[in-house]
Structure prediction request, 336 residues.
Amino acid sequence: MLRYLLKRVALTIPTFVALMFLTFVAIRLVPGDPVEVRVGERGISPERLAYFRHELGLDQPVWKQFLDYMWQLLHGDFGTSLASNAKVASEFAALFPATVELALCAMLFATLIGIPAGALAAVKRGSFYDQTLMAASVTGFSMPIFWWGLLLIMFVAERWGLTPVSGRIDLIKYYFEPVTGFMLIDAWLSGQKGAVLDALHHLVLPAIVLGTVPLAVIARMTRSSMLEVLSEDYVRTARAKGLSPLSVIGLHALRNALIPVVTVIGLSVGSLMAGAVLTETIFSWPGVGKWLIESIGRRDYPALQGGVMLVSAVVITVNLAVDVLYGLINPQIRHR
Prediction:
């Protein structure tokens, strides 16, 4: 098992380096000058401009800038934001809990609805419900996140007034110092009446928007896995013994069908992080995704590089953990 683990860890290193290099180059292809963010656009002489370019290392070739940046990373230095002059790692640590909270709620929404819906579609294969679910899952998977988010804001928030449009909590009614960075936990710790419900109220629309794509994937995967399991001999044997349909489906079929579904749930972290960028921007959710979008507008190279690197590290770590757990569940995987 140790050899399998070391092999998987070794495979992640070139992936991480290649991803960082592509990100590093792509950021510099975006039009705009980061020096102007730091010193302003007006009243800057060519000498002063050259000085700041040298200070930021922008007068060096791209490959040299990349090697210098990787050397900084090896020493635990993720850079300093050009816009806020704060350490990138500190900004990321302050904003990351908001993104995690949103991603967890979105995945909870997708799992609680997707697994039962997919299992029921498999049991009622070929029925109107099965066909409707499959059509809905294709639509949900294909639907652009920004369009879906704006549509919900237009009807649910604006026209019907059921939920807030943006933010994590009503700052006029509730104010408390953050302890964990997770608004639901901090609202509960504050002891203020109604704070937790208000935080949940703000989470509804962003979680639905972010969880729509994973919901469609989980529902389809559950259905496919259940169809395979329902044709197995042990399921037919359980039915022949006279067990109730609920016992056959819940205890025998669904439990065995969840192994690939759990893998899909773990691997959906990457799509959640990518979707969080648009979702947080649409709903003004103060997380890492919104921060990265703002950093692009400010041409804040250190914030973009550090933010993408840290998000990539989280996604790669989660995928590695899922890969290792799958190897524990199925020992045959270790020998491939």
